[in-house]
Amino acid sequence: YENQFALTSLEPDPYGIPYDYYSIMHLWKDAFAKPDTITIETLDKMYQDIIGKQKKPSKWDYKRICYMYRCDVCMGEKMEH
């Protein structure tokens, strides 16, 4: 599971989307960990117990999908490509 934690890029998000602690795609803090250990430690501690617990996509998840599929409108907003 090591590839799940590899840093793939230091470049900003190509769509201009900020880091999304609320993303439905985010792994939980102890994903693939040994008992009582943490594999993902957030820089901002207030998000530590939030990551990986979402039940529905965040607004940024939807925005990313809209950019990827080049939608003209996303969540009621005109999209720039």
UniProtKB/TrEMBL annotation:
<dbReference type="InterPro" id="IPR024079">
    <property type="entry name" value="MetalloPept_cat_dom_sf"/>
</dbReference>
<feature type="domain" description="Peptidase M12A">
    <location>
        <begin position="1"/>
        <end position="72"/>
    </location>
</feature>
<protein>
    <submittedName>
        <fullName>Astacin</fullName>
    </submittedName>
</protein>
<dbReference type="Pfam" id="PF01400">
    <property type="entry name" value="Astacin"/>
</dbReference>
<dbReference type="InterPro" id="IPR001506">
    <property type="entry name" value="Peptidase_M12A"/>
</dbReference>
<dbReference type="GO" id="GO:0004222">
    <property type="term" value="F:metalloendopeptidase activity"/>
</dbReference>
<dbReference type="GO" id="GO:0006508">
    <property type="term" value="P:proteolysis"/>
</dbReference>
